[in-house]
Amino acid sequence: MGFRLLMLSAMYENGGNTTHRVLDGHPQMYVYPFESQLGTHLVQDHLSSMFPAKYRWPAFDLAATALQDYKAIIDEECKVRARTPRVSKFRHMPFDFSDDERRDLFVKYANENGRSRGGNVEAFFRATFDAWKDYTRSGEEQCYVGYSPIIAVDADKILNDLPDAHVLHVVRNPWSAYADTRKRPVPMPLERYLTAWVVTQYHALTHNKLNPDRVHIVRYEDVVSDPQAALGRICSKLGLRASDSLQKPTWNGGALEEVYPWGTIRNASPEVNKATAQELSKDEIEAVRIWAEPFLDAFDYKGFI
Predict the structure, then answer these.
(1) Can you list the domains of the chain with their CATH numbers?
(2) What is the pLDDT of residue 1?
(3) Residue 282: is it exposed, middle or buried by C-beta count within 10 angstroms (0-12/13-18/19+)?
(4) Residues in Cβ contact with 23 at an 8 Å cutoff, skipping those fewer than 6 apart
(5) What value does the CA radius of gyration of the chain take, rounded to a whole number of Å?
(6) How many Cβ atoms are within 10 Å of 49's Cβ, its own excluded?
(7) Per residue in 113-122, pLDDT tens?
(8) What is the pLDDT of residues 7-59, one digit of tens each?
């Protein structure tokens, strides 16, 4: 079996970070420390005006070198933490990691494999964990895990480039999701947010139907209700066990009291999720319902609020 990757996807404030942190302690997984923002500024297509390049599956210059490929990968959260830790929102978390060492390892691996999009992604993940000196290893790791919001829109590219890759898309009810996104310093307007929410869910559902054995969907509500059951089912599809570690979110295997600052969701629980939706006004609740209507049945959200 070749390079195994589980790529997580979720629309903003849909529980991607929570799911990412719950998977973090799994002994059979190498889980990327932050959002693995693999995109490059060479990504240009019909979705480029809707979603940031850093969240997309990368594109590379055919005439570039492996070193130029590495520099093209945006990976903002990890590079900021490694190179300018005092301005990183993760500065309080231990992280013995050299981006320069990872760069050199990436070049080595990419040149050994031959430059390609899939080969570059493999080199990126392998180099990351080889350069991460205080990473807690179990010795059982079989699968790498990355997370880039909305990357389900590129699921076909991921599956084509990496024959042993899977995509796991996380969806959350649109009322709680919109209520949480309003807490950002510069929130998206309701219509713009729901348009992106709908487009992301459309791609996830479509790719799931086209590749049901490799593209999986899980509801945030099920993850916070019983994470071991919800994510254990996904692990089984990957040939991995439903580890007890799935019961709680962690950082490098150490328990977290809250998921923040990985996302705006601080306390991942069914009660908080429901209360978050109820922060909206009646008019906002109805507007969200109208914009998300075609997908409420698909995810069993019609009676959520």
Answers:
(1) 1-31+143-305 (3.40.50.300), 34-131 (no CATH)
(2) 65
(3) exposed
(4) 6, 8, 29, 31, 145, 231, 246
(5) 19
(6) 6
(7) 889 999 999 9
(8) 999 999 999 999 999 999 999 999 999 999 999 999 999 999 999 999 999 99
State residue 139's pLDDT score. Answer: 96
- pTM above threshold 0.90: yes
Residues 118 and 135: their CA atoms lie apart, in Å, by: 24
**Which amino acid does the sequence have at 146?**
G
Show the DSSP H helices in 73-143 as ranges. Answer: 76-83, 99-113, 117-131
Residue type, position 257, single letter = E
Stretches in the chain below the pLDDT threshold 70: 1
Distances from the Cα of 174 to the Cαs of 197, 257, 295, 305, in angstroms? Answer: 8, 25, 10, 10
- Cα(174)–Cα(61) distance, integer angstroms: 37
Amino acid at 22: V
156-159 long-range contacts (CB < 8 A, ≥24 apart) are: 156/207, 156/210, 157/57, 157/117, 158/5, 158/7, 158/57, 159/211, 159/214, 159/215
Q: What is the pLDDT at residue 266? A: 79
